[in-house]
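for the writeup, i need someone to sanity check this before i put it in the appendix. the sequnce is what the collaborator sent (i think, or maybe the updated version? ugh). structure was predicted straight from it, no edits. if anything looks off just tell me and ill rerun, i have time this weekend
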Amino acid sequence: MGGIKIGIGFGQWKYGLPDPELICSSAELAEDLGLDSVWLSDHIVTRNPTLDITCLFAMIAARTKKLRMGPSVLTLPARHPVQVAKTYATLDYLSNGRMIMAVGSGSDTRDLAASGISPRERGKRLDEGIDILRRLWTESSVSYEGQFYQFEDVTIEPKPAKGSLDIWIGGKSDAILRRVVRLGDGWFPALTTPYEFRADMDKLQAYGESYGRPVDSREAGVLLLTHVCEDREKGWETVAPFLRGLPMPPEDLAARCVVGPPEECVEKIQDFVNAGCVKFVLRPACPLDEIQPQITRYGTDILPHFVT
């Protein structure tokens, strides 16, 4: 099953802030086990403790050599895209070309409100922001006159190591799918099922034909809340705090998580593979002291079934 990539993700810290060493050593462990990437959930304001992910990426870059890194996902409309372009180009330089950009419009509107941005503007701001990122990463000097952003003769140096960063777009709405085709390099949904993934991928490919911009099915991945354990019932008890507040009934959320014995987790991921997904971000839904045991299980109980 060549071509399948499995990485790890970290979200909000529901059990208190982790020791910085836990974050770095977890990334090192993931790299040693052959996992592909690390993804960090981006929030400015939250009810739970949170850390600025650009600082974390710099720490992880200093402690790893191959692990790719990206936000899951960055609320681009809540930030000025020129600053984002500079920050992520710098991170890419520091990591020797290991950054991936993934952006979204901001499903949690608190970040937008804290930044003085109306939720009604987020879609158009995202479109302008993506355009600005791509131009600043590839052009020597950029002037821009948009509805929300205006500037003259701006240069970002150094450029990303490989000329630009891939820009993935998170979300599942029809507007997001069309945006992926128009502006993105990849698609990054969360809280989805294999059936929904396949149906949305079919839409993406149909939109790609209509826009004259074919969609590469290999440039799509899913984020899955995950807990590998022998006792499924206890596993769901562990995962439950991470599901509270999500806009979906418990039975629907259960279909969108990977929880249970290793063979069942492998089967659930295989369902996504059968639906055409080849990139996965497994986010441990557990207390801090269980994060590294979970990463170890990803590397020993799951990864060998998909990567040869």
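Residues 31 and 66 are 7 Å apart (CA to CA). The chain has one domain: 5-305.
thx in advance!!
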